[in-house]
Specification:
Blueprint lengths: L1 H13 L3 E3 L5 E2 L5 E2 L1 E3 L8 H18 L5 E5 L4 H11 L3 E4 L12 E2 L7 E9 L3 H12 L3 E10 L3 H9 L4 E6 H10 L8 H9 L7
Parallel strand pairs: 5-6, 5-8, 8-9, 9-10
Antiparallel strand pairs: 1-4, 2-3, 6-7
Helix pairs in contact: 1-2, 1-6, 2-3
Length: 210
Amino acid sequence: MENTAKTIAAYLLQIKAIKLQPSNPFTWASGWKSPIYCDNRKTLSFPDVRQAIRESFVRVIKEKFPDAELIAGVATGAIAHGVLVAEAMGLPFVYVRSGAKEHGLRNQIEGFYKKGQKVVVIEDLVSTGGSSLRAVSALREAGCNVMGMIAIFTYGFQKASDNFSASEVTLFTLSDYNTLIDKALSTGFIALNDIDTLKEWRQDPSNWGK
């Protein structure tokens, strides 16, 4: 997993799916100030990157969840990646909305599934884990057996770790914040004097920059 984490981190930096701007922070939708911005949808536009992510997902599933019967993608960022993984593994696919539709069949889970099916959830990004775990809850309420979740990237917040632990969900990620920062430093995407800022933000992101 260590080599995978480094490879994926390098790809994310190269295609600017992840941008690091310690001196010119971004503002997230939550209002948090952040020296990092992650948009993993960009990975779909680069065939080599898309393939590397798909193969990494498949490898982790085969190793950690060999009995998986269904792949579920979290809408909207992980739908395409989930489809690619399901296709490569010859497994059925569903995706989970953030909430039930307000019209039609009022589905939150789109696609065909059976109660008791063993599901692996695909996610593109984990921050606090809130939206990811809501998808898990929807699948569980529908009678599915959620074996675990795999995401492309995590910021590694303690809050996320606590949330996943409380929900009894096993999480694996292809890459992570610490690996990304190490790779960014070694390849010149950031300078050594940026490291303290990036570490401070990760410790208390909701109050950083205020």
